[in-house]
Amino acid sequence: MTPTTRLSAEERRDEIVAAAMTEFARTGYAGTSTEAIARRSGVSQPYLFQLFGTKKDLFIAAVRHGFRRTAIAFEAAGRAARADDPSTEHVLHAMGVAYCGLLSDRELLLCQLQAYAACGDAEIREAVGEEWMRMYRMVGELSGADDHQLETWFAMGMLMNTAAAIGAEMAEAGEFSFASLGRIAAGR
Fold first, then answer.
1. CA distance 146 to 132
2. 142, 82 in Cβ contact below 8 A?
3. Residue 168's pLDDT is what?
4. Quick check: helix, strand or coil at residue 5?
């Protein structure tokens, strides 16, 4: 018999958030049952509610986790780019390329889109708005971009989201690649 390692509450919480991201990405906030999340994460529903309180709290935790992953990638790419060439265009380009890498994670992408779709709920809208503005400010601070550059860069990111959600066929039909979108978003 192989001994099992008992997970801490924080580790179990992280596993549940990952399972929730998968389920919410597939069926959205309204369409996802806590039963499916509990089953995917291997815990009971009462334990899930013990850790998160409500389905909405779990959804918000999953959304915040996704934004954190994106912000970490932007920050790492932005800092590395600044060390090489501190120009705004170079830093934005590097962050755009980093985002292209994130877009290959379909669950992260779809969970992000589901977060925007669930903004009809005031609490979810507030959490999404907080995370989005935190990321917007961080990109601005790292890159030195002005408001117009940031608006263009984030607008291109939304175009990239749409193309990635539809699939590779969209990119081929539109005769653009995600890397070229990163360059366009950075003004190159």
1. 17
2. yes
3. 60
4. coil
pLDDT of residue 11: 84
Q: Kindly list the distances between the CA atom of residue 102 and the CA atoms of 38, 49, 99, in Å, as whole numbers in the listed order.
A: 26, 30, 5
Residue type, 149: Q
Please give the model's pTM, rounded to 2 decimal places: 0.85
What would the two tokens of residue 31 be?
């369409």
Q: How many residues does the chain have?
A: 188
Quick one: which of 151, 161, 138 has its CA closest to 91?
A: 138
Domain ranges across the chain: 55-185
CB neighbourhood size of 185 (10 A): 23
User: Which residue in this structure is represented by tokens 């408001």?
Assistant: 147
Which of 4-32 are b and which e, b meaning 16 or more Cβ less than 10 Å from the residue's Cβ?
eeeeeeeebbeebbebbbbbbbeebbeeb
Which DSSP symbol is given to 53? S
Backbone angles phi, psi at 93, to 5 degrees: -60, -45
Residue 56 Cα distances to 24, 53, 121, angstroms:
11, 8, 10
Residue 169 — pLDDT band, cuts 50, 70, 90? Answer: low
- The yes-or-no verdict on residue 153 having pLDDT over 60 is yes
Report which of 188, 134, 136, 180 is spatially closest to residue 160, judged by C-alpha positions.
Answer: 180
Q: Compute the C-alpha angle 88/148/162, nearest 5°.
A: 90
